[in-house]
Every structure is written in structure tokens, then in C-alpha cells.
């Protein structure tokens, strides 16, 4: 960087006073100060962006490592469950797993947790979601707790008038 001391700044100020003149020097000094401030802010923004990118790369690496570890654990668990299920199936049927290589229970199809508990259309049911909210939350957020039929709603909100008259009067 440039080493600017007090003596060098005083020399630059004296030359600027002579070259620019005392009338325009304050305006030029303000303009130079604003430009230097903008440059510093721009440099700080670039530094912050670079540090964010570095942190983001580190987080991506950590995420991939975590996902790999989770996949390894999942594979291990599935392998162990399959082995124990095969051993249990063999124990119940009285056969040896070496004679039935590749055979799996239930005729070759073992449903996973996701497929067994997923709704048919792929979306959660509205009623399931509404029933999952506690009553205190519904009351706090003015969510209707019960449904009212159209006739009951009309009766409830009809203004009270005189005695009821029949149609044939």
C-alpha cells in the first residue's frame, strides 16, 4: 500500500490549494471523500461476498459429508434388518437361507415405510392436517373448530322478527 504520512498529506494539500484554488478546494475535497468512501464500501462488500462464498462452500462440503454418513448408516440398518428378517423367516419356516439364495419374504415385494404410509395421491389429507393442530392453536388463530350446515347457519344469522307466520295466511 501507499505509505502516506502527515508530511506527505500536507504537501499534497498545498499542491492542491495552488492548483485547484481556494474557492473550489472544499467542493473537490468533499467529492474526493465521497469517492473514497464509495470505494471502501465496494471493497468491503466484495470482501463480505467472498467470505460468504467460502462459508457456503464449507457448508456444502459439510452437507455432502453428512448426507454420505446418513446414507451409510441407512444402508447398514437396511442390511442388518434384512439379515435379521431373513434369519427370522428361516427360523419360522425351518429352511436354510443358503438353499434359497435371493428369496425374500412376501413373494419378493417388501414395502418400505414411505410407500406403506404415503397417501395414494401423493398429498397429505386436509383432514389429517387439520386434526393435527391442537385446539389452543385453532382458538388462538381463529380457525373454525366445528362445521355448521347451511340451514343451521341461516337460522343462526337470520334476524329475529315477530311471531312466525305460516305460508297460507
UniProtKB/TrEMBL annotation:
Membrane topology designation: Single-pass membrane protein
Locations listed in the record: Cell membrane; Membrane
InterPro entries recorded: TatA/B/E, TatB
Chief subcellular location: membrane
Gene Ontology CC annotation, any one: TAT protein transport complex
Gene Ontology molecular-function annotations: protein transmembrane transporter activity
Gene Ontology biological process: protein transport by the Tat complex
Compositionally biased intervals (Polar residues): 92-102
Cleavable signal peptide: none
Swiss-Prot/TrEMBL keywords: Cell inner membrane, Cell membrane, Membrane, Protein transport, Translocation, Transmembrane, Transmembrane helix, Transport
Region (Disordered): 86-108
Its biological purpose: Part of the twin-arginine translocation (Tat) system that transports large folded proteins containing a characteristic twin-arginine motif in their signal peptide across membranes. Together with TatC, TatB is part of a receptor directly interacting with Tat signal peptides. TatB may form an oligomeric binding site that transiently accommodates folded Tat precursor proteins before their translocation.
Quaternary data: The Tat system comprises two distinct complexes: a TatABC complex, containing multiple copies of TatA, TatB and TatC subunits, and a separate TatA complex, containing only TatA subunits. Substrates initially bind to the TatABC complex, which probably triggers association of the separate TatA complex to form the active translocon.
HAMAP family: TatB (MF_00237)
Family membership: Belongs to the TatB family.
Name of the protein in its database record: Sec-independent protein translocase protein TatB
Organism lineage: Bacteria, Pseudomonadati, Pseudomonadota, Betaproteobacteria, Burkholderiales
Amino acid at each position: 500500500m501507499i505509505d502516506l504520512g502527515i508530511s506527505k498529506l500536507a504537501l499534497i494539500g498545498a499542491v492542491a490549494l495552488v492548483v485547484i484554488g481556494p474557492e473550489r478546494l472544499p467542493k473537490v475535497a468533499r467529492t474526493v471523500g465521497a469517492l473514497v468512501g464509495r470505494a471502501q464500501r465496494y471493497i468491503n462488500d466484495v470482501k463480505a461476498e467472498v467470505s460468504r462464498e467460502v462459508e457456503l462452500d464449507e457448508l456444502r462440503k459439510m452437507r455432502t459429508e453428512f448426507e454420505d454418513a446418513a446414507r451409510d448408516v441407512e444402508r447398514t440398518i437396511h442390511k442388518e434388518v434384512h439379515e435379521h428378517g431373513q434369519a427370522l423367516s428361516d427360523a419360522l419356516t425351518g429352511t436354510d437361507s443358503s438353499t434359497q439364495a435371493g428369496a425374500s419374504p412376501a413373494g419378493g415385494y417388501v414395502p418400505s415405510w414411505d410407500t406403506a404410509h404415503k397417501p395414494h395421491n401423493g398429498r397429505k389429507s386436509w383432514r389429517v392436517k387439520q386434526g393435527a393442530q391442537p385446539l389452543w392453536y385453532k382458538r388462538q388463530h381463529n380457525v373454525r373448530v366445528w362445521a355448521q350446515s347451511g340451514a343451521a347457519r341461516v337460522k343462526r344469522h337470520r334476524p329475529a322478527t315477530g311471531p312466525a307466520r305460516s305460508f297460507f295466511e
